[in-house]
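Hi team,

Filling in the usual template for the complex we talked about on Friday. All components are listed, including any nucleic acid strands or ligand strings, so the model treats them as one assembly.

SUBMITTER: L.P.
PURPOSE: interface mapping
COMPONENTS: two
RESIDUES: 650
SEQUENCES:
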Amino acid sequence: MTVPLNVPARSLPVPDTVSPGMQALIAAPLRAGWNTFPTTPDGWRALAEASLAAARPDVAAMAERLRVTIEPGTIDGVRVHTVTPPSIAPEDRDRLIVQIHGGCYVLLPGEAGLPEAMLIAAFGGFKVVAVDYRMPPEAYFPAALDDAMTVWKSLSSAGDARRIGLIGTSAGGALVLAMGLRAKRDGLPMPGAIASGTPMSDITKTGDSFHTNAMVDNVLVSTDGFCDAAARFYANGHDLRDPLLSPVYGDMAGFPPVILTTGTRDLLLSNTVRVHRKLRALGIVADLHVYEGQSHAHYFRDDRIPETAEAFGEIASFFRTHLAA
Amino acid sequence: MTVPLNVPARSLPVPDTVSPGMQALIAAPLRAGWNTFPTTPDGWRALAEASLAAARPDVAAMAERLRVTIEPGTIDGVRVHTVTPPSIAPEDRDRLIVQIHGGCYVLLPGEAGLPEAMLIAAFGGFKVVAVDYRMPPEAYFPAALDDAMTVWKSLSSAGDARRIGLIGTSAGGALVLAMGLRAKRDGLPMPGAIASGTPMSDITKTGDSFHTNAMVDNVLVSTDGFCDAAARFYANGHDLRDPLLSPVYGDMAGFPPVILTTGTRDLLLSNTVRVHRKLRALGIVADLHVYEGQSHAHYFRDDRIPETAEAFGEIASFFRTHLAA
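RESULT (copied from the run log):
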């Protein structure tokens, strides 16, 4: 039963079944730095600051292309940005999306965390509150989740929580699931729907695609790379199997409808489909979308290509179907 | 844009995220004969007969375990088997499932094609008509589809076609999609729902998972193996890109709801998700289920393991939701 399958070396062509823009993302070499990471708190902090500096011009250009406005602020002391599309349909005026950014719990602070918020604002026509949660070394587990819950408590108590959707990708995809688990535990209302993209739902290196898609996914590349080291840095010695760190182990009974997004080359393909199966086993409405040839979170890397419109069109349609009006 | 990605040799452990029974299927070595195939019509015929002889005792044991009865017959000259579960709920009495078996268009004649029919009869509680279509060298493309359509024409004209669901896997998964295309072309009614499992929706060797899951899928193993040679034998010189051979290229507008099933190691993962995307782009209800660690059609290889009940539970629930009562 434990004989491993030996797979020979292979050469993977860039698929011609995707748009030229997606082909460019797939053709990119393995991400620089995927297997190097800082060894000191200051090193991690410097990397986060560098990710912000690198993202700022892209985010500004994207906001202009998508015609969204961005307002910084705080909610009960937690840093947020409110992202607003050029127009909101009457039936969506009382709806709201809360976005929790990714970046392996250590990257993409400030405006760097906003691309997904801008995309769902622009393609969905929703108002979005993006949570700029604390990250290590400023604060460790469960600080990111605490900040997200502070925002959730405030927004969900201000009106009908079923009008609010959560969206997040990667670490953010795990955090929106953990928010559901925490809301249950704390007796807070559930959101109306959750969009979890390629979630880091299991950071214990468990899941078949950690092996099958190793060195195939050109973003995360391998579970022995940057992202796992970053997740351990955030966990700060805490049990990695805690459902608030690895939500696939949580009890999702009572969850609202969930839409899951991943790609065939995604290192977290298994992390995603395992959450789908758990939800379906509980009878929860759960839609899975797997995009051809895409590695981790490729579906929101370029707002100008059709696959991005396709993925956010699906998510927006899911929110419109399941959020209370 | 066309620089291939070089993936080093790897050793894939058997995942512990699936049941022991599924672990046994995943731990099996690459299927014997995956890259050898007959070179004469008699050789293909002998192989089909051998597949029937090998399957007969398994099918009989399975029918007993699942307590289904099997009746051979014909419909307008086409060989069929009617598979009946021990009991049928009142609301399902007028519902019917038509099953089109797989086997790369050349294998699994007679009772050998019945496992999927027995599974949806047993786990779904539906009456099933299984089509034992002609295969080469008895008859070539489009004979399999012609036989399926003869049965469809007869059954769909006998009552409300929306009460009838189609199910098929692999070649059968492609045939049920081609039946939808042909029904449209011929002005016949559409079925109420279609279950297409890991369809051979593109036999032109196009699709990213033909590369990423080559030598990873222990059933089909590679697009340069048996199944592609068999499909070309069936196509008999016909253009492989014809939508009736490669339905991913067909116009699926007007299709009923479709449920698609595949696995993370499936060589046809891309063939499956590409059909999902096409359907969704047309706004058609289409549910995708991707099972952890599974290779091609692993989800119906053993009726005694939980993953089989899970997959057929999803399909049965989909039929119950979408078929007219």
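MY TAKE: DSSP finds nine helices and ten strands in chain A. Chain A has one domain: 37-320.

Thanks, L.
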